[in-house]
Amino acid sequence: MTTSNTGTGDVDPAVRAELARLRESIDNIDAAVVHMLAERFKCTQQVGHLKAVHQLPPADPEREARQIARLRTLAESARLDPSFAEKFLNFIIAEVIRHHERIAETTANGASPADGAVPGDAADGSAPSGDRTAATG
After folding, report:
1. Is pLDDT at 123 greater than 50 in this prediction?
2. Which of 36, 43, 100, 107 is the most exposed place for a label (fewest CB within 10 A)?
3. Beta-carbon neighbour count of residue 58 at 10 Å?
């Protein structure tokens, strides 16, 4: 199979077919990631409401550090760059904390947890450990 840099018209049909197959897999994985993140955010939204009702802080740096270490280990075993995994989790944690702050503010102003729901909230990445008090779950 040969390819040319002169444009897509010169690409071997077998290469095009392989690209299409791989891109379809990527698209499916992207869809799965989005759905998993949505489920994660649903869980973290519940964490945010629980924290707000019990006046717990939106962030838990100790839990966040444990989650980052855990994710780095998982990344290494999956042959994913641990630094990338850490950056990704830090992005999620920051968003979750922002959502938890908003939920806490809404709850403090007298709204019920249902009234203070944040659309798409719950991205804090709760671990299966059952510790649901940190911003990361």
Report:
1. no
2. 36
3. 21
84, burial (CB in 10 Å: exposed 0-12, middle 13-18, buried 19+):
exposed
The H helix count followed by the E strand count for the chain is 3, 0
Report pTM.
Answer: 0.70
Taking only the tens place, the pLDDT of each residue in 80-110 is 999 999 999 999 999 999 999 999 999 998 8
Q: 115 vs 39, 52, 78, 102, 110, CA distance in Å?
A: 20, 13, 40, 12, 9
* Of residues 58, 56, 34, the one with CA closest to residue 120: 34
d(CA 121, CA 29): 21
Among 92, 91, 88, CA closest to 124: 92
